[in-house]
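Running log. JK asked me to keep both predictions on one page so they can be read side by side. First protein, sequence followed by its tokens:
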Amino acid sequence: MGGMGFIEANKALCMLSVLINTHLLEAARKHHVQRYFYASSACVYNGDKQKDTKQPGLKEEDAYPALAEDGYGWEKLFSERMCRHFREDFGIQTRVARFHNVYGPHGTWDGGREKAPAAICRKVIAAKVSGKHEIEIWGAGDQTRSFMYIDDCLKGIGLIMNSQILEPINLGSSEMVSINQLVDIVEEIAGIKLKRTYDLSAPKGVNGRNSDNTLIQKYLQWEPSISLKTGLEKTYRWIYDEYVARERGGAAEERGSGRW
């Protein structure tokens, strides 16, 4: 897992992930696996179609002509093609879903690989616990995204795996929000208002990215539907407990070392 900060700073490492899919597809062919799922990403989409913060939604066809996210996005797009050709040449029934920002409890929430919902939850929690009612936001805060709660993601994987959908398909919420709006929601959950500062030099990714769910509705009569507020409430509570437990553990370690 990696948020935009990790992706932009580790392009070569992200590209090396192609080896994972190569080895898995080869193993699937060798052992006559009947069905194979590949978790792709909305980072495969053409960057020129993501310059507008009011982006109405990326359709599956918008991946071509190719201009994917440098490093990570190109690896995902290449691996999608590998899945297609292993299906065509070797008969492995591959299924490919393009994830749009999966989040939820038990996910990475600190250390540099966390995505925006977890990072914002952590920052709001830190501000509340410390009493320093400030938050730093990467970029101007007007960049837009959609975020999919983990339960929707898991249900979608099951439906896609058991479908006859051959082409890559979006798996994401169509509830688009700006990063500023994301902060608004987490502040409301926390019952706090923070002073905002903006780091315009920090990685922020494309200006606008949202999931167009026309195709998944057509094939499955379903789309991710858990609201961002509902998912963030559960995520915030889990990260809060983890954060407080870590802080208490650190304090106990300080006392045990004799530094207190």
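And the second, directly underneath as requested:
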Amino acid sequence: MRPFPPKKMLIINILDILKRYSDAEHRLSQKDILKILESEYAMKADRKAIKRNLMNLIDFGYDIEYRESFRKNKNGEEETIYTDWYLVREFSDAELRLLIDSLLFSKHIPYSQCKALIGKLKGLSNEYFSAKVKHICNLPENMPANRQLFFTIDILDEAIGKGKQVAFAYNDYGTDKKLHPKRNSTGEVRAYIINPYQMVATNGRYYLICNHDPYDDVSNYRLDRITDIRLLESPAKPMKKVNGLENGLNLPKHMAESIYMFAGERVSVKFRAQRYLAGQILDWFGRDVHFLNDTGETVEAFVKVNEQAMIFWALQYGSHMEVLEPVALREKVKRAALDIAEGYGGLQ
């Protein structure tokens, strides 16, 4: 037989019941709380004790809602009835579902860590939410994973907050599906000394926006390719000394100009696209796109974007668009398309 818990646990158990079984659609009476206390916590109490502890929780700062009604007791006196108690949560079920979906679509979080995070998010709601999402599962553990990812994020967060440099090894995946560090001409693992400024998530990946000493331009590194990171005591280079960051980091602008997160020069590009691509163009390049010459079938667009990324984008959308300017970029796209055609046996 289970021992009865001490009475001082009553307020803790009532709070636990509210967390597990209540929300705006599932409200509890004091009688409901009494039944759960007895059946699941082996604890007995009277309604006055339940109400007193509920009010104490409200006084402690917990956001608990309830409904008041009035009735006359057997002596004909009017008394107040408190019922329909529930705990107001910091995250709605829709918000939690959105966060869980973001984890499921992530391409950089290892399977075991993703599963653990989803469990923690589910714990922020109640039993009813857990039932709603029990059918959700993420992909099997068939993607290569860097299990240092969360440690890397912690170190970078500290470095950015303190304005310090970091050092790390940067890796590529080999055909053995394992990470292999980049090496210098002598075969030694190459040490990257980096001035970190911002971490961002895009296209299902985490990236570090930074500057690589001793260069003066902006670099982007995938966090899941970073290993053996170390926080250095040396101060990070100020942004104003980095080309493109003289006035600080304009994150929306940077992301729109770095659609594939390639490093390198940004160029002004004019292209013509089928009008039905307007939504895709806005998704990729943001609202700084300038549209003109809308014929109803085609539209021209001006964007500022990384040149190599624009070549990739133009090839991705192929026959749906055409680069017009600059001429040098147009020729690079043309050459890339011809190389693809030659690889498939040439033009017929």
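Observation for JK regarding the second prediction: The longest helix spans residues 327-343.
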